Amino acid sequence: MSQGDPKDDLERLRPYLDDFHEAALLEGEDTALLCAIALRETWAGWAPGYKVPQGNPRHIGYGDAGHGFGLFQIDDRGPYSYLPRECPQATPFLQARWACHVLADARRELGAFQSLPVFEAAAICAYNAGSGRVKRLLREGRHPDHATSGED
Question: Can you name the residues that pair with 68 across neighbouring β-strands?
């Protein structure tokens, strides 16, 4: 295990790449997208708000004031709150599979907007902020990223 934050995204992701890739293959998702979400949500375990031990691939951390579970920050207050409760020792592979399911659900929930050029960005934003907020922004003609930036 590293002694400190490698301060390099690829090095932060390195302990998880095989798990993320296997989950992506199994779920029909893009490995790079899973990596991007893990980096955005927790810096792949190194974010300042991610509870210690940071960067330990054998530890499941929490962020978001204790409500975001694991590398992909599955929230314990929303529709996926049962996942961390049912499997509090989820491996990075299982966490990545959960992230794939959240993305698939977001795409399904936003299906009416599939023809928009920002559809994939909207699904990723819905992963973070919820489909309801993203749908409202899309109906208003605004970019879905406003849901994740606090500008909605």
Answer: 63, 75
